[in-house]
Amino acid sequence: MSDIRFTEKPLSDWMRNTAADSEIVISSRVRVARNVQSFPFPMLATEEQSREVRRNLIDVLGFEEVHKFGEFHVLNLNELDQFDKEVLVEKHLISPDLANESRNGAVILSEDESISIMVNEEDHLRIQCLFPGFQVQEAWKRASAIDDVFEAHIDYSFDDRRGYLTSCPTNVGTGLRASVMMHLPALVMTKQISRVLTAVSQVGLAVRGIYGEGSEATGNLFQISNQITLGQSEAEIIENLYSVVLQIIGHERNARERLMRDSKQRIMDRVMRSYGILSHAVIMDSKEAAQRLSDVRLGIDLGLIEEPSIVQMNELNVMTQPGFLQKKFGEEVLDPNARDIYRAQMIRDVLKH
Q1: Motif (RDXXRA motif of the pArg binding pocket involved in allosteric regulation) spans which residues (predicted)?
Q2: 73 with 7: CB under 8 angstroms?
Q3: Is 348 annotated as a binding residue?
């Protein structure tokens, strides 16, 4: 049986730490995609081939050089129920694609969940490193170091001209996806967000919602990531993302300062109204919860309120998601109305402490 304690707590340990610019950049993530030479991509592999790939990749954990990254735990996806998988998606530890497919998938997690290595997802191997705040360069260094360990023991699919070969052509080359999760409420309130995000898309970066491609940007949370993996080095990709995110941070800070200078009472009213509703509501859907949690987070960052803490805000972002609510409250599958009731209860309980 896989170790399910990772799905029983809402917040990964790495998210309890603070870092530079964390009032705007929630987290930084780097992911590298790799495939094992002489094996078909996961979508084309037989049951026996995908099992062998999983076994070979997990065997790498036995080598001594892995130990410098700490202790790892292997969760086989076919040993988890659907709600455990949903919680792992909500914590950004696996992708929706891995959760929904059955091809001998697994995830290798570090103790603090800052390292998540997906096996037999769209590619055989996807190494993901997560850091709090704006630490995309640090996340890349760690992902690269882990990648070096695997490459020392696994023959990767690699072409001298094209680089690393991946299941999706958009990842060919470096196989690198770097992203930051940003909280940009002031740019939304001042109606500057469209202009800023349009400019971002013109320099080779993508803007997505909280769960990546195809997801909606709720709660004023936006994921900014590179689109180009071929024709640029890893250093160029990271530097481009870093410089653009620095500019967005500056725009958001300026917008917050303008709001505090010109509309402080209105912002205070908005924050306190959201805090009051969160503290007393009996029914709360996910979209409203995300928006009101965003308002309260902004109030904390601006020094308008002292409680709750940012850690509690981070916890509630996960605890209010459908998978976590189902796992905590549901002996049977919860319908949307029941989830909305439990979501409101969960928020009230957290804000009381």
Answers
A1: 339-344
A2: no
A3: no
Please spell the DSSP secondary structure of 194-234, one letter per residue.
Answer: HHHHHHHHTTTEEEEBTTBTT----TTEEEEEE---SSS-H
> Does the annotation place 111 within a ligand binding site?
no
- Annotated ligand binding at 253? The verdict is no
The three-point CA angle 47-156-55 to 5° equals 40
Residue 19 has which token pair? 């870092």
How far is the first Cα of the chain from the last one, in angstroms, to the nearest whole number? 34
29 among the known binding-site residues? yes
Q: Can you tell me the distance from the alpha carbon of 339 to that of 119, in angstroms, rounded to the nearest whole number?
A: 31
In this structure, which amino acid lies at residue 132?
P
**Burial environment of residue 265 by CB neighbours within 10 A (0 to 12, 13 to 18, 19 or more):** exposed
Coil, strand or helix: which one is 349? helix
Q: How far apart are CA 303 and CA 260, in angstroms?
A: 11
270 is in an annotated binding site: no
Q: Does 103 appear as a known binding residue?
A: no
Is residue 12 a known part of a binding site?
Answer: no
Task: Say whether 119 counts as a known binding-site residue.
Answer: no
Q: Is 297 annotated as a binding residue?
A: no
- 210 in a known ligand binding site: yes
Whether the CB-CB separation of 94 and 116 falls below 8 Å is answered with yes
Q: What is the pLDDT along the chain (353 residues), one digit of tens a residue?
A: 445 678 778 878 888 888 889 999 999 999 999 999 999 999 999 999 999 999 999 999 999 999 999 999 999 998 988 889 999 999 999 999 999 876 799 999 999 999 999 999 999 999 999 999 999 999 999 999 999 999 999 999 999 999 999 999 989 999 999 999 999 999 999 999 999 989 998 888 999 876 555 445 678 999 999 988 888 899 999 999 999 999 999 999 999 999 999 999 999 999 999 999 999 999 999 999 999 999 999 999 999 998 888 889 998 998 999 989 988 887 677 888 999 999 999 999 999 87
180 annotated as belonging to a binding site for a ligand = yes
The answer to whether the annotation marks 34 as part of a ligand binding site is no
Model pTM score: 0.90
Ligand-binding annotation for 177, yes or no, is yes
* Angle value at C-alpha 25, between 19 and 31, nearest 5 degrees: 90
